[in-house]
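Inputs:
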Amino acid sequence: MPALTRDRILAEAIAFADAEGVEALSMRKLSERLGVGAMSLYRHVANKDEMLDGMVDAVCAELQPPRIVDDWREAIRTTSAEAHAALLAHPWAAGEWSRRRPGPARVAYMDALLRVLTEAGLRPDLIYRGYHAITMHLVGFTIQELSYRNGLAGQDLAVVAGQFLDGLDDGHLRHLADHVRAHLDGEDHGDEFGFVLDLILDGLHRANSTAG
Amino acid sequence: MPALTRDRILAEAIAFADAEGVEALSMRKLSERLGVGAMSLYRHVANKDEMLDGMVDAVCAELQPPRIVDDWREAIRTTSAEAHAALLAHPWAAGEWSRRRPGPARVAYMDALLRVLTEAGLRPDLIYRGYHAITMHLVGFTIQELSYRNGLAGQDLAVVAGQFLDGLDDGHLRHLADHVRAHLDGEDHGDEFGFVLDLILDGLHRANSTAG
DNA sequence: TACACTCTGCGTACGTTGTACCCTATGCGT
DNA sequence: ACGCATAGGGTACAACGTACGCAGAGTGTA
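Outputs:
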């Protein structure tokens, strides 16, 4: 058994949260997995809250910061798609990301994103708003997407939706029923994340081209 | 003391969460406020989780569903601004909204929103994606906004940001430092929520006008 | 070699949480 | 007057985060 370290604790906690959900993560169960006593963890993390901060930052550290390329929109599309994928791979991370103080890795990512917008030649007000729009889209969209993805408690979406549709009075909530059917039809709705991101990026581009 | 009812429990729980934060809400403290024993609550709510579902739906019930007017974008701007204000008034609600199964009031709101998009004459694929984009923006943006608003633990944003800026090496994280200063300058950055919403709405409008 | 000190991990214990289970009292239909 | 449903209360339990103090191992110094 290798020595207990902060990194080992964070890695195991991330694996646990990926597998069992972050709400099932307790210090006792985590310590059991690591083969140590519960209180031993506190030699390496200040408390559970700070540990969760560290977990989020560890996920951020996996992200490739955006590269500076000729086409700033393409750079942001690429990095956002990667970040989106990372947040889907760690389904608890988006919810925590939105709630926690940023750590070093996240701060570095923020800076890199702002740099792209700055070097793209956007006006300062559009950098400010665009940065918020992009990051809020990344995290906000992913949070929502995940909450739909698991039907909300590990239940099968098709079953839940089917029950919902069966329970409807004729014509009542007709538009919602259509929407649910569109979900169930499972035809490819394309890259929705990218679709909205493009609305934002193209809107920023257009706004920057006109008088502000 | 009036009789204990589900509505009275939900109203008190909402007031408590507004005042003390949803993480401080416990069944015991809530029952104390209501002047009853802890277990009495369980005559009217199935468990804490179901109670939180009810709280979110009670907030949804406050929302004005969008009205059908000539200008669909204006209708969505109006209802979104109202919903945004309601989510800011109950700062815990957006986070729970994104995590919970919708209740009757939320379902009704969803249907009304889809109806506006449908009667606006949007193509089915744009209704599908536009609906997601709008609701995700509403909830996702508000979640993020709130997490910044309270500096993340009731601390003063100016203090936290000031410490951050003081701790920076010269030139390191320069773009982020600029951004933080823009936050602190406090000059009016306008309606950011509406700005991004307009990017989405105008993008949908434009996409609907061109061949799909 | 002996000692002191730090650092890591452990065991116990406390307060708080959600809630299962059972009891009591009140009101109502017959 | 009697039986029953219904609202509320009290006790108890398992799980949680973590404060506190102790034990052993490693390391620098005399």
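Remarks. The first helix of chain B runs from residue 6 to 20. Residues 3-4, 36-40, 43-44 of chain B lie near DNA strand D (CB under 10 Å from a C1').
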